[in-house]
Recover the amino acids of this structure.
């Protein structure tokens, strides 16, 4: 092997890495937020009394979880002009990732809802709370506790998924690696740098989630 | 979409390619994953740490950059070209092995300590314990989530299109270009993936019912991420 | 005892799909009465309670609480629920709130009372149920009996005109059953109006002013508890009381 690993060769390109990493983070954060909204709607749909509504919700989840993210991205990116909408690469990528992530988010939220015992709804109702009051004071706090950890994992999954945005011309970290690698031929070094960025992002989120969790849910241990 | 029907044989062939690629990657990943799982449960802590770092690394890194590295980096580093097929198989197998190692580890750990002790006490060697006692039981726990991993690999195989491999997604994009752009071929693409993936998950569910063992299911949370 | 009924249940029918759970129930409760409903499991006792505060809807008959018609899905149900306190078999305390917060929530959020007033009342209620030292504990840190006493305080905090107990002691260890029954006894002595579904026949005989025996969705007997136990009028009641005595 005539190749020597020299990290120094990548240094001139590190300036471009910062905006790329920003883009990765931006897309991921926005995608998580959007997917939470869509996911919450779908989760509630799946608990509806109407069979048709439940079916649509379930269908959404199954479609998003059984089609590759790349295909979803291409459909949003290429097909939106066909229905008359002009989307920037960033928006198309964001939309595609959000729609896909919402499929997973819906299941996380649905599991969180199911984990709240029926008695909670009954006690709140029996006390005269309106649906909104019940949701705000009793249900939401418990659902949030239930979904907190899976949410953290989903955030990490979205960070990794954001790398596919490079396929629709978004200049995030993976795209940086491609471009710099092609320009410098130092593929190993660029790979290592890109990998480090992702690992740092993911592990930081993990640690932050654990730490914030400890602060938020500061309940002493259960008796039993 | 009327023109697309002409391309049906092409789509079928491409579907076969996708299935073949995924299956190969899964197989290699399963073997690798088992090795890693054995390292993870080894008595020697350096081996455990190495295995842990391996799994954590591949679950914190997007498969796409591994793919690019394998395809573009290899010629420069190794001096010979790597076909998209080889690069894709390599990257997919690597990721699959990280996921499979967790699945296999759960399977091994699901066999209670009492079984180990009883088997060892009766004079069996480690290898024999593994083969006759642990493996059969572990397999029942491993099979259902493996279906989930396979589905993930199937979806990830679409990334091979980016480096030019003619699997399903690339074929779909090509058909779309010849048709002058538009919805049809892309929707057909999505439909084929959906049928494959959903169908396999139904088989996985049937497998689960057949084995009727508690523990990880093929639809459990983020085995393999969002693909 | 005041003569006008606080609760009127007239010919109530409740079905779940094709199964009829309540088959023409008629029952009136007058203020300060302690009505104990007994019977085998599955005879609709809990369901009856749940129809009174609209947790379940009814397919026939009518329920009136303080002259207001009880209709499960109407706007008027809120006023009814604000004046009825319910204590559940599984306690149903809110796990993410402390005992004190559990008790204070509904008066502030549903009744719109100010925090200071509610907190004073809550602390007094904790004194009453003998749990003042546990007000900052979370439900997970409390025993079953303690949780149920907090649940009683929670129901009392909203100044209810009627208290409904749905097998309040059935999920408790035998040792703690006594603590909860003692609190219920105190409430009865105070002059509260109580509708109690229970398996504790002795409690019903000691504390109840009336015992209602239900079987297969119907009220079979309705009389003074000591009377009913000494001289049950129907065969079904006789069977029931002798079987549990054993």
């Amino acid at each position: 092997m005539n190749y020597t690993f020299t990290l120094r060769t990548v240094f001139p390109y590190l300036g471009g890495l910062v905006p790329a990493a920003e883009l990765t983070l931006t897309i991921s954060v926005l995608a998580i937020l959007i997917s939470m909204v869509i996911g919450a709607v779908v989760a509630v749909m799946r608990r509806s009394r109407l069979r048709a509504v439940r079916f649509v919700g379930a269908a959404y989840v199954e479609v998003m979880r059984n089609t590759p993210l790349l295909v979803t991205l291409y459909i949003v990116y290429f097909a939106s002009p066909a229905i008359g909408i002009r989307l920037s690469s960033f928006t198309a990528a964001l939309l595609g990732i959000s729609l896909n992530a919402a499929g997973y988010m819906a299941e996380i939220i649905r599991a969180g809802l199911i984990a709240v015992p029926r008695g909670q709804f009954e006690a709140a109702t029996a006390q005269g709370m309106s649906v909104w009051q019940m949701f705000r004071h009793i249900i939401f706090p418990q659902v949030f506790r239930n979904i907190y950890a899976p949410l953290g994992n989903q955030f990490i999954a979205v960070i990794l998924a954001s790398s596919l945005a490079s396929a629709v011309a978004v200049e995030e970290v993976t795209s940086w690696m491609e471009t710099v690698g092609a320009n410098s031929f130092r593929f190993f070094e660029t790979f290592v740098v890109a990998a480090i960025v992702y690992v740092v992002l993911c592990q930081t989120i993990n640690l932050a989630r654990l730490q914030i969790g400890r602060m938020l849910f500061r309940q002493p241990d259960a008796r039993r | 979409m009327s023109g697309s029907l002409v391309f049906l044989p092409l789509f079928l062939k491409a579907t076969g390619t996708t299935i073949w690629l995924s299956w190969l990657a899964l197989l290699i990943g399963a073997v690798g994953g088992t090795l890693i799982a054995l390292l993870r449960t080894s008595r020697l802590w350096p081996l455990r740490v190495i295995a842990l770092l391996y799994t954590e690394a591949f679950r914190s890194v997007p498969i796409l950059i591994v793919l690019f590295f394998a395809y573009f980096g290899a010629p420069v580093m190794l001096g010979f070209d790597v076909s998209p097929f080889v690069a894709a198989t390599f990257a997919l197998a690597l990721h699959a092995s990280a996921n499979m190692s967790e699945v296999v580890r759960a399977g091994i750990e699901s066999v209670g300590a009492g079984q180990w002790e009883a088997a060892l006490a009766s004079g069996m060697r480690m290898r024999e314990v593994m083969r006759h006692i642990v493996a059969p039981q572990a397999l029942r726990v491993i099979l259902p989530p493996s279906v989930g991993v396979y589905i993930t690999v199937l979806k990830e195989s679409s990334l091979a299109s980016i480096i030019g491999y003619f699997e399903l997604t690339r074929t779909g994009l090509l058909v779309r270009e010849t048709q002058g752009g538009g919805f049809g071929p892309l929707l057909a693409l999505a439909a084929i993936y959906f049928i494959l993936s959903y169908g396999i998950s139904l088989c996985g569910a049937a497998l689960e019912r057949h084995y009727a063992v508690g523990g990880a299911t093929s639809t459990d949370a983020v085995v393999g991420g969002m693909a | 005892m005041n003569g006008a009924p606080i609760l009127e249940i007239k010919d109530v029918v409740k079905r779940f799909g094709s199964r009829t759970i309540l088959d023409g129930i008629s029952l009136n409760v007058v203020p300060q009465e302690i009505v104990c409903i007994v019977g085998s499991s599955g005879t609709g006792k809990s369901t009856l309670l749940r129809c009174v505060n609209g947790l379940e809807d009814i397919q026939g008959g009518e329920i009136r609480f303080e002259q207001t018609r009880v209709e499960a899905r109407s706007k008027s149900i809120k006023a009814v629920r604000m004046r009825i306190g319910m204590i559940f078999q599984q306690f149903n305390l809110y796990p993410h709130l402390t005992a004190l917060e559990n008790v204070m929530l509904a008066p502030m959020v549903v009744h719109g009372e100010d925090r200071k007033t509610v907190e004073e009342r809550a602390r007094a209620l904790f004194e009453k149920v003998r749990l003042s030292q546990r007000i900052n504990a979370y439900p997970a840190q409390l025993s079953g009996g303690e949780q149920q006493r907090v649940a009683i305080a929670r129901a009392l905090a909203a100044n209810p005109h009627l208290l409904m107990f749905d097998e309040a002691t059935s999920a408790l260890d035998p040792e703690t059953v006594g603590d909860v029954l003692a609190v219920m006894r105190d409430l009865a002595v105070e002059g509260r109006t109580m509708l109690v579904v229970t398996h504790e026949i002795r409690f019903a005989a000691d504390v109840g002013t009336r015992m209602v025996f239900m079987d297969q969705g119907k009220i079979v007997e309705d009389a003074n508890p000591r009377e009913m136990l000494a001289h049950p009028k129907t065969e079904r009641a006789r069977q029931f009381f002798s079987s549990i005595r054993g």
